[in-house]
Automatic annotation (TrEMBL):
Gene Ontology biological-process annotations: negative regulation of cell growth
PANTHER family the record matches: CELL GROWTH REGULATOR WITH RING FINGER DOMAIN PROTEIN 1 (PTHR15379)
Domain RING-type: 226-261
Location of region: Disordered: 280-305
Pfam families reported for this sequence: zf-C3HC4_3
Protein species of origin: Tetranychus urticae (Two-spotted spider mite)
A molecular function GO annotation: zinc ion binding
Descriptive protein name: RING-type domain-containing protein
Signal peptide: none
Keyword field: Metal-binding, Zinc, Zinc-finger
Amino acid sequence: MDQSSIRMFDPKPSIPQDMTVLRNPFTLALDDQQPREGQLENGVLVKITGDKPFRLSSYWGVNVTKFHQALKQDWKEIRESIRSGTFLNEHCLQSSKPEEIDPPIGESIARTIAADEPITPEMLGTSPRSCYPLIIILSINDDYKDNQAEGLDAGQTSSGDNKSNKKRDEIVCLANVLHIRDNICPMDSNIITQLTKLRYGNVYSLQSLFTPGGTVDEASRPVTMCVICQDKAISRALLPCRHACICCDCYGLIDKCPLCRSYIRSFFFILEGDGQESEQTEQIEQSEQSPKKPRKRFGFLSSLW
């Protein structure tokens, strides 16, 4: 056998990816029932949910580079420019006046996002384009919290620190980048990416988890069962494929995702309990002594963003 074709892998214990739970106050999705044609001329229908007052603003033909630069600004600057209607004004073909919305709890809002003046495919350019066809931004309306937000910069102790950290990690803006079907780029309209902005932090891409179809338990709550044993609830998401499909017990028996067959590099918990604490204790004990035999898994820490 040609030794140059042999690759050696160092099996390591599988350690969960450190994750921080953040609550996203917004959702936005395209309405599946809208016509496939004429969306650039007639507008695109979206469904929005929110759990706090927010502003909705839309921008057509936005320069890609300038958009990402603008989103890295301080939140106060972004909020003020959105409120005044000047955000991205110099870097897009058209922008809408921000609409202030107080959403009903637990209900979605339907909106047709259309340009005030006609937008043609030629104005957006040929593929690959240097501008996004449409960006819809949902930003929290927290003008009344200005004084409270100022206090976050001051030093705090004990419980004050925890409260400050939660505020700093609060998602204040969801930027939805959309492709709109036209005769130059005839691909169906879709959401290209969704970016979240933290109050005092970075910009993160909103990534989806892929789960199998769920069932309903006795309390009418949705439950998704492990695809291997079909007995326990799913408790972890696999990386890098992002399939959430297995329970605690079955995870220890595999080294590949049972759905896509890609190697498991790491994982994170999506369900508290289900052996999480006991498994973490076991991993710590194993790391303090040499393992008797290597584990058949290619797990290592990796940063998503």
